Amino acid sequence: CGWLDIPALKYAIMVSGVTELVMMKADVLSQFDPIKVCTAYKIGNKVSSEFPFDYEAEGATPVYEELTGWNQDLTAIHEEHNFPKALVDYIHFIEKAVQVPVSIVSVGPNRNQTIIRNLSK
Hints:
Helix content is 24%, strand content 26%.
């Protein structure tokens, strides 16, 4: 499980016409604090929020932002209102960065650990 790459995700959303996201493995991220998110790439002396298409040739280096981890077992959670604040903050960070809602969050491997979020709030 690697760190989320916002420039790559934004590109995938654009070319695929994605209107909602599904966040899998929130439980796996529970063990990390901080949680890093790639928000841009440094290429030479410039920082770009665009995904570098020739990563190696351009000598691109990821620029990470660190978010607080939740360090909590999520596997018994069955409703969104029980998410730890740090997980809610992480989801909102993603939604703001890519301008697409996260409609489903998985907190474990079983079907009953898949939570459909109420996006009508």
